[in-house]
Each structure stands twice: as structure tokens, then as C-alpha cells.
Design a protein that fits this description.
alpha+beta; Butyryl-CoA Dehydrogenase, subunit A, domain 2; Butyryl-CoA Dehydrogenase, subunit A, domain 3; 3 domains; 3-stranded antiparallel sheet; 11 helices; 11 strands; elongated; acyl-CoA oxidase activity; lipid metabolism; oxidoreductase; FAD binding; Acyl-CoA dehydrogenase NM domain-like protein
Length: about 450
Amino acid sequence: MPTNLETARSSSGLDTWQIGSLLYDDGHREARARIAAILEKEPLCIKSKRPFLNTSQLLHLSLKISKRLLVLRDIHSWTPQEFLIACLLQDEGLVISLHNAAFTPVILAQGSDEQQAQWIPRCQSLEVVGCYAQTELSHGNNVQGLQTTAQYDPATKEFVIDSPGVESTKWWMGGLGILANHAAVIAQLELPDPESLGGYKSYGTHLFIVPIRSPTTHKPLPGITVGLIGPKAFGGFGMTDNGYIRFDAVRIPLENMLNRYSKVTPAGEYIPAKHSKLSYGSMVALRAQIPLSVSWLQARAVTIAIRYCVHRRQFSDGTTEQERQVISYASVQHRLYPLLAQAYANIIASRELFELYYEMNEAIVNRGDVSMLAEMHSLSTAIKCKVSSESSRGIEEARLCLGGHGFSYMSGIGPLFANAVPSQTYEGMPNPKSSIRVIADDSNIR
């Protein structure tokens, strides 16, 4: 006899392949199936043992999985996109994830052609493994309020990276806790001020590539204090080495300031970008990734819940001894079906957002056209806040529809919630006491 799920599928007139074509890029499903077949044979990729591991064991496993995926990448000649699919199929952020998702892209976006030629091959070979160091204990999405400083010393042609207090400790960086040997650090640029005796003038936040661990011993370099921040809420991001770092007068060469748009001359003269908000481009890229990621988490959670409710039977209507499928109850349908539609809508909207980002980036890089920047900042902020909040609530609602079984880790929904819920706060959060207001134009983004 066919299962309840097989019966439900055969009775539907929907073309599931066409629906998938709305949600996936061309060729993605085929590549995903091919890569999944390879990973199914890998003992390290078996997920059923993960709930029984502690934090240290999970991070150790994350390192081993990352190393194995790199070997498989070379064996099967995976493209960067295929390697990303292999990482995503682990259902957890890995220690290597932020190197590929944040560190390397920011060099591509903010580094000059010469800097890209210097750093990108080393990033691809993993001689350089990096993280993106923005958030501090006292400031997160208020980038202009960051306290880490980068003072320029014309005598040595070096920047001195410094954490002036505990509040300026960089915090939350994925990839920093145990793996990274470099960091893309956002710091306040300070140059000698000729109008004040021995004083400095601030020129706002800029990006700097800072070596943080020895390439041979992997021990912290002089002036670097670095480590893990510990377990996260609900066990989320258990395989990601979120870390902290402080700088005590760490010197880096002038060339380590990413200078595609603005730069400092050897003499200490500041050459500003043509547009003061060009540096927002990399932050928009990070924020634009979040809605698509959490929308897929909600889609998976709702899929689990619907399949469960098709199989699960509860109570009889009195006309037969067989109990009714839970999915047949109107109250369950009213809870789950709108969440499925919402996930579809958010996935499609998030993909459109990413296409707009690529269009904006192409205009900035190739033509110096920043006309889309303010709009992209507004859209990415609003959609990120809306979708991350909706998805977190939607995943929890899907879990409730599984009854008591939803509280088991093995239902698969708990880990999805744990990894979705922090998206409401990282890269900015809405004010719960007021509507979202984004004030943005060509002269001011805040």
C-alpha cells in the first residue's frame, strides 16, 4: 500500500518541478543532487551523532569536515558555487564558512586591483584564512560608533591598530575563535593633524587586513588577544567558532588598508572616495544574504511539519475506527499553509534583492555609478528585518504543529530555529517600539 505521503503527492495536480524553478537558480538542483550523493558516502557528514557532542567536539568536527570538503573540492574539481553547496548541505555554519562568505568577498569589493592580486590567490589556497571583524562589545550596526583605531605613522609607513578599551573588543566574528590567521578589521582611520601639535584627525571607519596568528605555529601574534566567546543560545551555530579579539598597538603596513575607493598616501595625505558611502557596499552584501538564508530555513521547517501532519493521525470522527490525518483539520491548515506561501514569497523576494545587489555592484565597480546604493541600503535593511522576524516566528509555529515530537532534536526543526533566531539581531535589528524607518539619500545613509 502507498504511504500517506505518496498518496498525497499522487493526488496533487501541481507541477513540483515548475515550482522548484521559481525557487532555485538554473542547474542548482542537479548540482545539489550530485554533490549530496558524494557526501552521503562520507562518514564525517553523518548528522545523527551531532546532538550528543559538546561544544569542543562540535568545533573539532567542524574543522575535520571543512578539511574533508576541501579535499573533495579538489578531487571533483568543484566550482566555488559547488563548494558552497557542499558546505550548505552540512546544515550548519562551518569554521571555514565566513572566510568564503565575508572575508574574501570584502577584499573583492573594497580592495584595489593590486590588493586583489596580492590577497585573493592566497585566500583561495587557504594560506590566508580570514574573518570579518566589525562588531564590538559596545557597538554593532552603528559602524560610525566603533572604537577600534588605526593611527597612521608616517615615519614607518604603518598603521597602528589599537583597542582603546574593553568596550572596543571585537566580538562575534565567525571563523575567528580558532581558525582565522587574518582579519578584515573595521577601524577609525586617524591621520596626523598638521594643525595640532602631535594630534590626530579622524576620517571615519575604513577596512584593514590585519594578520592575527602565526602562519607556522598558529599562535596569536604579538599584541593580539584572541579566543572563543563560548556556546550560543539554543545550541545554535554550534560548529562555528565565533570569537573575540583585542589589539594592543598592532602594526601593519600601509598597503594593508583596503583602498579601492579611498586611500592614504605614504606622506599621510587622505584621498577620499568619490562617494562617501561606497564602503557601505560590502555591508549591504552581507545583509542581503540573510533573508534568503532564513527563508529557506522556514521552508524546510514547514515542509517537515506538513509531511509529519500528513502521516500523523489523531482522533476519529466516529464514522470509522481509523483516526483522521492531522493535516485534515482546518486549524492545522490555517497554521501551516500560509507559512508555506510566506516562505515561497520571501525566497523569491530575497532572490530579487540579490539580483539588485549584483546590478548595483556592477554599476559601482565598472562605471562608478552609486545611484542605486541608497535604495539598496533601504531595501536590504527593511527586507532583512522583516524576513528574519517572520521566519523565526514561522519556524516556531511549524514546530508547534508537530505536538510533543517537535520538542525532540530529531524532528529537525529545533536546530533550524536555533540557527534562524540570531538573524533578527546580527547585521542590524528592528526597533520593536516603532516602525522601521530608513532615511537614505545620496548624501546621507543612516
